[in-house]
Amino acid sequence: MKIYPIETGNFKLDGGAMFGVVPKSLWQRTNPADNNNMIDMAARSLLIEDGSRLVLIDAGLGNKQSEKFFSYYYQWGDHTLEKSLASHGFHRDDVTDVFMTHLHFDHCGGCIEWNANRTGYQPAFKNATFWTNKNHWQWAIKPNVREKASFLKENLLPMQESGQLKFISDTECTQATLKNSELGFDILFVDGHTEKMMLPHIALNGTTFVFVADLIPTVGHIPVPYVMGYDTRPLLTMDEKSIFLEKAAQENYHLIFEHDAHNEICTLQSTEKGVRLNEIYTFNDLFS
Known about the structure:
The protein contains nine helices and 15 strands. By secondary structure, the protein is an alpha/beta fold. The protein is globular, with a radius of gyration of 18 Å. Helix 8 (234-250) links the parallel strand 12 (207-211) and strand 13 (254-256).
């Protein structure tokens, strides 16, 4: 098995929204804001090569939304999913599976694209199975008012209509990890950010790598109270983070960040103040 970072593009979000009730005087130490209070964000996906299987975890924002839509997110840099795949010797058509941690647009928007005539939508990965879970799918297609702007029907319904959508079989493992999923890695289900978000646990060379998605968006979000304003159940997020962080520190998990534009991977350590950052790594540090 091999894993690769796939940089689908960088953007910016409001720092206050990203840190909820935490004062700016604290969060700006790790995530400095610009004059508009916006902080740097990545949309980093993960590619797993395992025999004949090529699994992409999340797919970024995509490029089918309107210019007005993207103007809200201040995209920057020159990363694209296509260029990042090509840098590792792959093409979208090589991808056999796209595993979506959850269905917010910045995680699954790249799964669907315009068709050739721009009259409708089609899967951007024509040979792939799209994986979510039934609980989260129902949550997404019948969204609550709080998340309605994050669950876009043009990202979701074409997956179902294509016949390429499939559900992970067991979603009753909150606070425990689903072993031996259909995709060859373990999954932790968490419910604080959104219903049944899935965090892949990938065993490689004696180390567990965890793609932490929106449970811990950046290094600055490691302390338990540092919870996004976007979370639907922030108190539950804190409980889930606390349990996860303790285990991650004890078992030397390597956390892979989806949204940290400047830090790719880290380990944790237990301190008198709780679990905190230990070491930061790049993919090149660990896999070159």
